[in-house]
């Protein structure tokens, strides 16, 4: 028969003893968790502006590529029309037209399909830098800017700047592909 020696009994007792967390360990873990959550909340706030700018930028690029393709296929010039709060894809002949109505003579914007327009997020502004120019043209209440796409596949090289509070995104478009050639983003 095997007998237990005092050393074996001592080893059995210490290995079966359960140990809880000390107050200091709990405070340290809660402090680390608070710092991680604080950093994540700050990152989420910044990333929402970044996400909004990238989303609208991508939608405008998609409209530009669609305008180029449609112009080539239809053999008719198309355009992107920039107004306050909206970017629309139209045939060039219809772009930039302001129609008046009724006694107050208020401007009416001709409606287009939802897939042929991009509505800017509240508080977002858009500016255009035309080829061979140094001045950004803003979209204001009574201004309409038109970006032309020809049936031969060419378009005017432009840069588009989207601003949302202190954050901004700048995209320079390639005249042969109507895709973004260079992009800059600053999120604050």
Question: Describe it for me?
Answer:
By secondary structure, this protein is an alpha+beta fold. The protein has one domain: 3-Layer(bab) Sandwich (minor pseudopilin epsh fold). 34% of the residues lie in helices and 29% in strands. The protein contains two helices and eleven strands. It has helices at 6-16, 23-74, and strands at 78-83, 86-91, 99-101, 106-108, 117-119, 124-129, 136-138, 145-149, 159-164, 167-173, 180-186. The strands form three sheets. A five-stranded antiparallel sheet has the order 7-6-9-10-11, with helices on one face. Strand 9 and strand 10 (167-173) form a beta hairpin.
Please provide a brief summary of the model.
The protein is α+β, with helices and mostly antiparallel strands and 188 residues long. It contains 2 helices and 11 strands. The strands form 3 sheets. The chain has a 5-stranded antiparallel β-sheet with strand order 7-6-9-10-11, with helices on one face. A 4-stranded antiparallel β-sheet has the order 5-2-1-8, with helices on one face.
N/C terminus separation: 77 Å
Number of contiguous helices:
2
User: What would the principal axes of the Cα set say about the shape?
Assistant: elongated
Please state the second-level CATH architecture: 3-Layer(bab) Sandwich
Strand order of the largest sheet: 7-6-9-10-11
Mean pLDDT: 84
Helix content: 25-40%
Number of strands: 11
Quote the CATH topology: minor pseudopilin epsh fold
CATH class: Alpha Beta
Q: Unreliable segments (pLDDT under 50, ≥5 consecutive)? A: none
